[in-house]
Each structure stands twice: as structure tokens, then as C-alpha cells.
Amino acid sequence: MGRRRAKIAAISCSHAPMQPPSTRQWVLDTLSGISGLTHFGHLGDVFEAAAASVHANEYSHDLEDEFACAASFLSDIRSIVGPDCIRWINTGNHDDNLIVSDPRRVPKSLRGLADWNRHPEYGEEFRKWAWLPYEKTRKAIMRVGQVHFWHGFDAGQASDELEGLQMISLAGWIPHSLAVRGHTHRPVPPTQAKRTAKIPLPYWYANVGTSGPLTPEWAKRKDTSQWGTAILVIDAIWDKPSRLHGKCWDAQLIVKG
């Protein structure tokens, strides 16, 4: 019997309702041109979560607007990838800010109202997606064969490689693994990790960038020159890999021009 094959698309960091309409349309148009998807992942920061910020909220929108925009985007994606496509969301730090136990953010008595899955109008859409927690544990990782997905925690220039190796470690050091995340908004094509400049390791990492704003107001004093919008498309062996297998995936990062 032949091994099952998976075709996966992944995006991250749409930050509803801050997502530019042109970016939203590019994501949907690009997904429409990809046939045969078996898996689709949103790697987190579905919401901006400005209403739960520790900083003063200078935006005119409220949490209801964030839920409405995010639900509409996810619904459009579902209609494109089809009902048989496995769909998941790796909860991001912005999403987690709405429900985390933190007295500086949403008060404990209101935290249940900020849970998007319980919303009386938009919760139905959110419940159609599998949500993985925002934490550095094995259960936060979505794994398809040799490919591992999570949101991301660190943001330094070398964090894609370093954190990728950490998450591959949590998943059991499967040789030839590809570690995929978002979080930093910096797209990175599949790149082989190295022990030293001349000694490669049998592990790869990638970053899908952002599908949200490239120049948000809060970042105007930060360096966003490396930010970009992208979708990672992966062909992989779906079945649980053996340590005797070689590299069982191929991936292409599609970057919005």
C-alpha cells in the first residue's frame, strides 16, 4: 500500500480587523489557484486583540469588529479549501491575550466574554476550526508527517532556526523535519539549519510572514523592512515518518509582490 500524500497551505498573522483588503484578496486568490489541498493552517494572531492590550487603545474598532472580520476571512478560506480539507489554527500571542490569566489584560470576570468560540454570532465559524494552544509544548504543534507548525514565541534575527530546533526537539527529533512558524512577520523560505557555517543539520525551518498590515501605526518607529506577506505550500508524505526515511516533503514559499 502506498503512503498517503498531503498538500498543505499555511499563512499567519492576519490581525483582524487590521488586514488590508488587498492582502486579504491576494490570500484568497492565491489559495483558489492551489488545487488538491488536504490541509490548511492559520499559524496564529487571527485577531489584533487591541481591546486586551496593556497599552492605551487608540483604535476606533472594538472586539466585536475583530471577531466579525476574522470570522468572515476564515469562512472565505473554508469555502475555497473545501469541506474535506483538514483545518487548524495555532493560537498566537495576540489571540491568547484575550483569554490568558493576566490581571493587566481582560479582567477575570469578563474573560469568558472575550472567548471567540463562545460568541453568539461568530463563534459558530471559529468552532469549525481546530485551535491549538499558545505554549511551548508538544501539544501546541500541528504535525503532518515530517512537517511541524506552531505560531512562534521569539523574534530575534536567528529565532526561526533556534526556535525551530526547539520545537523539533519537543516533537521527538524526527530527521528531515521542517519547522514552520509565523510571529515575526518576516517570510523565510525553507532553509536548512546548520551546526556551524559548514556543517548542515538534517532539519529545516521556514516562516510564512504575515497576512496582515505591513506598516501598522504601532510599528512606525520599528524596522519593518523585512516584513512580507506569504503563503507556504507543502507537498509531504502524510503518514508518521520512520527515522529511516529520507526527506519526505517539498515546499514553496509564495511571496506577495
Based on Cα principal axes, name the global outline: globular
Q: Please give the count of helices.
A: 5
Secondary structure: helix percent: 10-25%
How many whole angstroms does the radius of gyration measure? 18 Å
Question: How far is the first residue's CA from the last residue's CA?
Answer: 42 Å
Structural class: alpha/beta
Q: Tally of extended strands?
A: 11
Please tell me the overall pLDDT.
Answer: 94
Q: Numbering strands along the chain, what is their spatial order in the largest sheet?
A: 4-3-2-1-10-11
Percent in strands = 25-35%
Order of helices and strands: EHEHEHHEEEHEEEEE
Verbal overview:
This protein is an alpha/beta fold. The protein is built from five helices and eleven strands. The strands form two sheets. It has a six-stranded mixed sheet, with helices on one face. Strands 5-6-7-9-8 form a five-stranded mixed sheet. Strand 1, helix 1 and strand 2 form a beta-alpha-beta unit. Helix 1 packs parallel to helix 2. The chain is globular, with a radius of gyration of 18 Å.
Secondary structure layout:
Blueprint: E1 5-11, H1 21-32, E2 39-42, H2 63-81, E3 86-90, H3 93-96, H4 123-126, E4 130-132, E5 142-144, E6 147-149, H5 159-170, E7 177-181, E8 187-196, E9 199-208, E10 230-237, E11 249-255
Parallel strand pairs: 1-2, 2-3, 3-4, 6-7, 7-9
Antiparallel strand pairs: 1-10, 5-6, 8-9, 10-11
